[in-house]
Design goal:
By secondary structure, this protein is of the alpha+beta class. It has 6 helices and 6 strands. Helix 1 packs across helix 2, helix 1 crosses helix 3 and helix 4 packs antiparallel against helix 5. The protein starts with 5 loop residues before the first strand and ends in a 5-residue tail after the last helix.
Length: 158
């Protein structure tokens, strides 16, 4: 995993850190791109899904090129090793536990496997402690917010 030092917090205002140093992403589309990649950290995100998150249904003429441009800018901000280019899209190469949304879902899945125990309670408390406000605050993408809200409400992976 290349981007070991990168952490992304989405369960409240967007926060990004690399090696405990805060990285400020001021451009709205960079924030949207990172959030879209982060909720699928470790998995390939197709260019088409990234374009929908960035522009909604009002895609530019060359959406693929636009995505490439924003990926290049995000790499400059986070480090070249954090985002991998694959034949069918891009992958955020970060430990999923360094993404609060993914950690939250994992903790709930673990709690679900220990019903009625002290471990369940501790795992749920740890998961809830990750929340710092409204999810995806500061990320301006109707498509992403709708998708991410559904994602947070679905059953966590087993």
């Amino acid at each position: 995993m290349s981007g070991r030092g990168v952490a992304v917090a989405l369960l409240g205002p967007l926060e990004v850190r690399r090696d405990d140093v805060q990285i400020r992403l001021t451009a709205g589309r960079l924030r949207t791109l990172l959030a879209t990649l982060a909720i699928s950290a470790g998995d390939t995100v197709p260019v088409e899904r990234l374009a929908l998150a960035l522009w909604g249904e009002d895609l530019p003429l060359n959406a693929r090129r636009g995505v490439q441009t924003y990926v290049a800018r995000l790499r400059r901000a986070l480090g070249r090793d954090v985002i991998r280019t694959l034949s069918d899209g891009y992958l955020l190469d970060v430990d999923p536990d360094r993404i609060d949304v993914l950690r939250f879902r994992r903790l709930l899945a673990e709690a679900g496997r220990a019903p009625g125990t002290l471990a369940e309670r501790a795992l749920v408390e740890e998961a809830l402690a990750l929340w710092r406000g409204s999810p995806f605050e500061g990320v301006d993408s109707d498509w992403l917010c709708a998708s991410a809200s559904a994602y947070l409400l679905t059953q966590p992976p087993a």
